[in-house]
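Hi all, posting the design record for the shared folder.

TITLE: backbone redesign
STEP: 1 of 1
STRUCTURE INPUT:
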């Protein structure tokens, strides 16, 4: 998670998220095809490679509402929030500035997270916020974010309440589509508006805890959603 130490923002532009990734078309490569060469470009290969990159960017865009792991230019970086005064006075793996959770729920989640970290070494951290009411960038140092950290941001600003950023080690061990599936099932607007943001958070934590305890393999984390 070395890129966490670059400037990062808590909120991307809504227009950027709405546009989504652009998938290249055959016309986009017409200029390449017109170039004389003994080795003409492989259109299918080029489309496949760029589409793969587009899907990765789409995933990154979905996570950007939490804490973006990609470097940003100065214009984007200034959108980031840094409010350490919103951090709790004592360490906690759960920070709820939005008031989604009861005191009892926070306590139960904190215990689950502590047990998970003891059993697996993974550090799950939950930030419940309503942007821009958030400690923002201040959580990075407060939580000592590293490659084994999962930051779970609960924020309904763009409809889906569940967003993740995962460290490099976690990204290797857990299938990337697991995170989007958790967000799709428990974070969608219909789910949290019917059951509450707290229910979305708790259901996601159960799925994450089960997944991270699942032995690594081609089908790991596939049975928990």
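Okay, here is what came back for every position:
SEQUENCE:
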């Amino acid at each position: 998670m070395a890129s966490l130490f670059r400037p990062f923002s808590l909120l991307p532009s809504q227009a950027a998220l709405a546009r989504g990734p652009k998938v290249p078309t055959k016309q986009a490569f017409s200029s390449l095809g017109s170039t004389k060469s003994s080795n003409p470009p492989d259109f299918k290969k080029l489309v496949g490679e760029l589409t793969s990159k587009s899907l990765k960017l789409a995933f990154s865009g979905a996570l950007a509402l939490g804490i973006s792991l990609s470097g940003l230019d100065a214009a984007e970086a200034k959108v980031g929030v840094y409010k350490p005064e919103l951090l709790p006075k004592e360490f906690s793996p759960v920070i709820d500035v939005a008031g989604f959770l009861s005191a009892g729920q926070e306590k139960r989640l904190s215990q689950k997270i502590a047990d998970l970290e003891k059993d697996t070494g993974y550090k799950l951290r939950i930030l419940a916020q309503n942007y821009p009411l958030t400690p923002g960038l201040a959580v990075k140092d407060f939580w000592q974010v590293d490659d084994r950290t999962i930051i779970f941001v609960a924020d309904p600003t763009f409809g889906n309440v569940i967003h993740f950023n995962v460290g490099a080690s976690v990204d290797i061990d857990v299938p990337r589509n697991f995170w989007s599936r958790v967000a799709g099932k428990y974070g969608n607007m219909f789910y949290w508006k019917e059951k509450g943001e707290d229910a979305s958070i708790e259901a996601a934590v159960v799925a994450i805890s089960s997944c991270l305890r699942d032995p690594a393999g081609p089908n790991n984390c596939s049975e928990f959603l």
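COMMENT: Strands lie at 94-96, 123-128, 149-154, 162-166.
Let me know if anyone wants the other runs.
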